[in-house]
């Protein structure tokens, strides 16, 4: 199904330009996300499950939750098709991966985080396309 391929490249293109919250680099440049970290499955008629597995730069990265939030917000805004989104830390690459996975996949926690003006500003800076 060529749709899946289109959706894969679409999702990859969307996340590759997200910037790291602390560095001037993009997540792709830091190898936090790669093309192979995106998986797309068809789950219904015209609906797809997009799974992202990202790798924090260090196992105790304090920004992992924030990076997950940036991935989610950017994809929710930019994916051109109906989708469910699951975002995980690559297995074994973070000391608290289970907690973080729960947080970034919990709609209420994500909504609460985005209501925090400081957090929202950081997320916006990371997800806004460079001019």
From TrEMBL:
Keyword Nucleotidyltransferase: no
GO biological process entries: chromosome segregation; protein maturation
InterPro entries: FSCA_dom_sf, MIP18
Gene3D superfamilies, per database record: 6.10.250.1280, Fe-S cluster assembly (FSCA) (3.30.300.130)
Quaternary assembly: Monomer and homodimer. Component of the CIA complex. Interacts with CIAO1. Interacts with IREB2. Interacts with APAF1.
Similarity comment: Belongs to the MIP18 family.
Name listed for the protein in its UniProt record: Cytosolic iron-sulfur assembly component 2A
Species in which this protein is naturally found: Syrrhaptes paradoxus (Pallas's sandgrouse)
